[in-house]
Amino acid sequence: MGRIIPVILCGGSGKRLWPLSKADLPKQFLNLTDPETSLFQKTVQRASDLTGATLNETIIVTSSRYTDMVTAHLRKPCPHIISEKEARNTGPAIARAADYASRHFSADDLILVLPSDHYIEDEAPLYLALKTAISEAYKNRIVLFGITPHRPETGYGYIKIDPENPLSVDSFTEKPDAATAHDFLLSGQYLWNSGIFLFKASAVLNEFRLYEPQIITHIEDDAKLPSISFDK
């Protein structure tokens, strides 16, 4: 079995928790749950705990405006920081990370994509889900981790699944209104979209070539890349 390369997405505009967060200090760099540790630092530790990877085996995708902040929060050198001059959403960010991993590690390694601003109180369920996901990812499937909703939240994306086949995603809905979110909760057919993914680098690059070839064509040129979410 090959290794798992964590990819930490560390972008954002700093608007979600304004005025605590701001353009030059997005929420992943705030010490919201621990006076000594930022959400980003917790994510770096989570990546290591889940995969056993060191910073030498971790890829961080961030905005060029946050590169110095990322370096300061890491406290140790990370040789694999991808700095984007222009933000183009998670699609191009993940494509770049997969391309980078295939060239610097192996195209057959698994990639675990983690947002940098999550707070996860109990990580045991995520670890168990990862163990199940690994075998699926080695079948060239793109695995998305869902969260069982416990309230009709309008600020999250939703994944529709077949309760009899939860390994298959039917559709995505981004930030529904309150009535729709309530219906989703009652139906039992929807999960919150965690933004956490697992896949082989080669598998996801093949999907980009098939469905979003312009991302592969312009992977080194921010100005020509489309702005598109990975789960679209």
Automatic annotation (TrEMBL):
Signal peptide: none annotated. SUPFAM superfamilies: Nucleotide-diphospho-sugar transferases. GO terms for molecular function: isomerase activity; mannose-1-phosphate guanylyltransferase (GTP) activity. GO terms for biological process: GDP-mannose biosynthetic process. The keyword Isomerase applies. Keywords: Isomerase, Nucleotidyltransferase, Transferase. It comes from the Bacteria. It holds the Pfam family NTP_transferase. InterPro entries: Mannose-6P_isomerase_type2, NTP_transferase_dom, Nucleotide-diphossugar_trans. Residues 6-216 form the Nucleotidyl transferase domain. PANTHER family: MANNOSE-1-PHOSPHATE GUANYLYLTRANSFERASE (PTHR46390). This is Mannose-1-phosphate guanylyltransferase/mannose-6-phosphate isomerase. The lineage of its organism: Bacteria, Pseudomonadati, Bdellovibrionota, Bdellovibrionia, Bdellovibrionales.
